[in-house]
Amino acid sequence: MTADFAMMVLGDMLWEAMIVCAPVLITTLVVGLVINIFQVVTQLQEMTLAFIPKLVAAGLALLICGGWMLGHLVSFAKALIGNIPQYF
Question: Given 2, 4, 50, 57, which residue has the most CB atoms within 10 angstroms?
Fold first, then answer.
């Protein structure tokens, strides 16, 4: 295994991690933005008002996209493990 190949595998792993994390991160980003706009308009500065909806949204995103995320990780792991003989 060369250094270039190891860097390619590392890049693929980081890309897969970004793809798998995207639904939860984007959901919490949108909910946080909406809550912050609401807080600015109403001048209501309560910390739990920002934390609880983001926590619920992240949980819902995991419930909705969790199967897809797990399937994506399993297929990547199968491909990575299946290609081990080719790496050496």
Answer: 57
